Amino acid sequence: MRAGACLLLAACHSAAMGDIAPDASSPDATAIDAPTTGPYPIVLAHGLFGFDKIGPLDYFYGISDALTAAGRQVFAPRVDAVQSAEVRGAQLVDAIEAARAATGAAKVIVIGHSQGGLDARWAAAFDPEHVAAVVTVATPHRGSPVADVALDIAPGNSSDALNALADFFGLSTSGSSTSFSGALNSLTSAGAAAFNTKVLDVPGIPYFSIAGRSALAGASDCTPGAAPFMTTWDSDVDPLKLELLPVAAILDAAVLPATPTHDGLVTVESATWGTFLGCVPADHLDEVCQIAGQSPGLGNGFDCLGMWRGLETYLRDLQL
After folding, report:
1. Active-site residue among 58, 263, 283, 286?
2. Does residue 23 carry a catalytic annotation?
3. Which residues lie closer than 8 Å to 23 by C-beta, 6 or more apart?
4. Across all residues in the chain, what is the average pLDDT?
């Protein structure tokens, strides 16, 4: 099971926070004469060490099919597995343009999990006329205490933190021009602050966010959200998957005496951006129906695909 987790998900963003203004290498989208109202196609943006598909295993496991069945055109492109949000964001703009060309749509909705949410924000900032909305799921908008410990920025055992992250994410950088340790620099609270200063939200584009609450945290431990469908699982709690326990332990120790609610990797506070839709009883893997659609945990009635269907309906009701 560990190998599956290592290929999946995580949270990091720009490894190099230098000048990120758009330049000649940033794609300039081609105008398409098409309706400017929804429902828009959806582009799913994966996290660190993510993939579009490996054999029968999709990163967004079963989610594309569920959204397609609801009437959406769905695209799940692959970007660089381990790179900065600037590089991945530019690649995501290419994917947005490909989706527009394939569908004739004027705009798309970009939904990003983990680092994919940062990529989505970058794409919206530098190709705003073709993004109808941005939704981020468990994205570390304010960085991670685990990264601060791993890089000796905050007190704690940096070796243990680095090993726990490397073990969960995997050490392979196949398909990437960047190392894991380099990417990790952007997970820090300072790296997140720099990203947020330079990658600004675009007026007129709605931004939504979703967080996971795990380690048996209850609904009362989470900030109330704006979307009624997110309250469906308020009576449920989620036990962390074994793969996340080492990272979660370091997170908990790093923030003592505080006890923030988190999904094993990203705190609710860090995941909150724009209009906060709410929390679900899910860890960082459960949020994208991993691993391979297995149960989120003993006694947890959370329905991952149900959440994604509810999100699609919520956006449709907003004419997105």
Report:
1. 263
2. no
3. none
4. 83
Compute CA distances 9 → 125, 138, 151, 264, 285, whole Å: 23, 10, 20, 12, 7
Q: Domain holding 216: CATH number?
A: 3.40.50.1820
What tens digit of pLDDT does each residue of 74-108 get? 999 998 877 788 888 999 999 999 999 999 999 99
Q: Is residue 128 part of a domain?
A: yes
CA end-to-end span of the chain: 37
Single-letter residue type at 26? S
Give the span between the Cα atoms of 291 and 5, in whole angstroms.
7
d(CA 290, CA 5): 8
φ, ψ of residue 190 in degrees (nearest 5)? -70, -40
- Identify the active-site residue in 114, 144, 176, 209: 114
Amino acid in the structure at residue 273: W
Q: Is residue 230 part of a domain?
A: yes
Q: What is the number of structural domains in the chain?
A: 1
Out of 214, 270, 284, 286, the active site residue is 284
- What is the average pLDDT across 196-218? 97
| 220: in domain | yes
Question: Is residue 3 very low, low, confident or very high in pLDDT (cuts 50, 70, 90)?
Answer: very low
User: Is residue 46 annotated as a catalytic residue, yes or no?
Assistant: no
Q: What share of the chain is helix, strand, coil (3-state, %, to 5)?
A: 40, 10, 50
> What pLDDT, in 10s, does the model give residues 265-297?
899 999 999 999 999 999 999 999 998 888 898
Query: What's this model's pTM, rounded to 2 decimal places?
Result: 0.85
Alpha carbon distance 252, 258 (integer Å) = 8
Active-site residue, 113 included: no
152: containing domain: 36-317
Is 11 among the domain residues?
no
3-class SS of residue 171: coil
